[in-house]
Design goal:
single chain; 456 residues; mainly alpha; two-stranded antiparallel sheet; 20 helices; 77% helix; 1% strand
Length: 456
Amino acid sequence: MNALYVICGLGVASLVAELLHLKKWLIPFLVLGIAAATVVGVRDWNTNVSYFHGMVVMDNIAISFSTLICVIAFFWFWMANNYFHKETHVTDQAALVLFVIVGGMVLTSFNNMAMLFLGIEILSLSLYVLAGSRKESLLSNEAAFKYFLMGSFATGFLLMGIALVYGATGFFHLDKVAGYIQTHSTGLPGFFYAGVLLIVVGMAFKVSAVPFHFWAPDVYEGSPTLITALMSTVVKVAAFAAFFRLLAYCFPQVHSSVHLALLVITVLTLVVANVTAVYQINVKRMLAYSSVGHAGYILLALVAGGRGLGNAIFYYLAAYSAATLTAFCVLDLIEQQHASASVDSFNGLFKRSPFFALAMSVALLSLAGIPPLAGFLGKYMVFAIAINQGYLNLVILGVVTSLIGVFYYFRVIVAMYFKEPPLGTLALSLSTKVLLAVLMVLSLGMGIFPNLVLVL
């Protein structure tokens, strides 16, 4: 909980920095503050303390996912250093990003459905503003409008579902709802299952699962690239941590119709996302559909359940986040030079900047699930859980869609290594080189030494 307090304090400090004319030192201060929050969070390990009358529980699962969010935020602010230097509203945007992190940390630790709603709103309202932060861009304005409109509908579904579950059980706390379900398994009214289904729909929107994914490609494309990186990492980790907590702690025994709905969503997400990504010529949109596809693999684990589910989801999200941050860092620099995010913008990148091409290759190969990178072991763990629970057909579908993913990832790699480059060179700052090197080492290191992550 202390880590959450630190991040909240950093958000307030960002707003005060404008009044005290400390913008120049803000970003280094925030990076150090997030590093401190990570250390403080790790020190809470094995405490398992509840706060606010049991509405928030800092157990090891909450600490693990909160720490992962802080680590991602640390790298994100490192990556976004130049972005904030170019922004006139540095303090406002930095504060909004920090409140996104606050909302994400609430989602990892809630034990009350009111806190689930609060965490989602803190996170979402900040993102609506950040998505439209390029006021001169019509695409950015469109992204913010679509995100706000679709997010409002999703919140309505979620709130209605929470209301129905409360009406059926009389509780908001997850442990009390789970206890009520266990003692009244044969006497639950039909609207309880409707409520669970509506909650699943609301959460499916947040993780951009099909058919609730339509906002993702347009919002990812229209938002500033680094804000898109924030959405596809911090938001994805927080949303899946919340989804996992709901299904594992609150609804471990739900009606078969709800399980069937999750199964259908998982199949649609795996197929539609990966097939649609093949037809994308814009790398940003391709990564958006890729993000949707990866949500499908994590949903596969959630549907299967079983022993080791938390480990598999945590590892998968860590591997996915490292690769995604690398890909978006490269994409942002390419976009700055070419004012375009098309596949052709990557033509001949290896001849212009071998290090840059290597970083993008490692990111894409990890996302594709190629060994020995972390993305391979993440998919292996998900598939192993599903096979152990008897979902062999789903695993076969997952393998097939992974092969489809290899095709569209390799299209960018082919462009980097085998096509002629445009005129000009790419200049990389030392800070960016070090960042990309660290992220590449993480992707490789987690793949070779997975126990360093799984011990959490």
